[in-house]
Amino acid sequence: MPADNKSQIIIRNIENHSMPANLIDLTQLLNEKMLVYPDTTPPTFEVTNTVDKDGYREHHISMLSHTGTHIDAPRHIMRDGKSLDQFPLDKFIGSAMVIDCRGRNDISLDFLQTFESRIAEVEFVLFYTGWQQRWNTESYFDNCPIPTKEAAVWLSQFDLKGVGVDAFSLDKIGSATVVNEETIPNHHVFLTKGVLLIENLTNFDKLPESGFTFQCFPLKVENADGSPIRAVAIIDEQLTG
């Protein structure tokens, strides 16, 4: 079944409440104390109005487009790449699977190929590195298992909407002041193919290996190179239980 048809069926089932499901939040909490990528600006949350003074409460929020749990668009690394607002809504929801990579030095082609038949049936592949346990600690910046370039090229040939990870990046952590195709090769492999990247996910330990829907809707910002998201897994109990 074509990927677009699968997504339309998922969306209709959710709207009609015909699919018994549990929701799992895959999003890290945003606050001023959170970790941010090296050499980037942390978010700020300023109270501009209060209930006692103004009758209502409101914040002025300032953050980069790749803060916290977020999604990367092709425009993130390509001058004329597609921005998030140029994709249809169903680009951000679809069938998904988790690949457990904990304890590995890298995610090799040989390792990925053992999942080939399952990858061919889904629209999102999520890599469980275990780095979610290190969130907001300095060890979160340590190099986690990431796809080798050979593995990334192989994976990018599938009809995927996106690839996600419970870590800062699908490339080795470097500096935001030195970014090019050599320093972030996997970003270039996936984003040039229109495969979106979702980073800083969490709660992968609560997910089944498959039988769930992943959603990662971004803010509707014009020319968005990226956006914070509220990532959610919708667990289909009919498939997992």
Supply the key terms.
single chain, 241 residues, Glucose Oxidase, domain 1, 9-stranded mixed sheet, 7 helices
Could you give me the name of the CATH homologous superfamily? Putative cyclase
User: Structural class of the secondary structure composition?
Assistant: alpha/beta
**Anisotropy-based shape:** globular
Pattern of helices and strands: HEEHEEEHHEHEHEEEEH
What is the CATH top level name?
Answer: Alpha Beta
Q: Main beta sheet, described?
A: 9 strands, mixed
CATH architecture assignment: 3-Layer(bba) Sandwich
Please provide the count of β strands: 11
Instruction: Report the span from N to C terminus.
Output: 23 Å
Unreliable residue runs: none
CATH topology description: Glucose Oxidase, domain 1
Count up the domains: 1
**How many helices in DSSP terms?**
7
Write down the overall mean pLDDT. 91
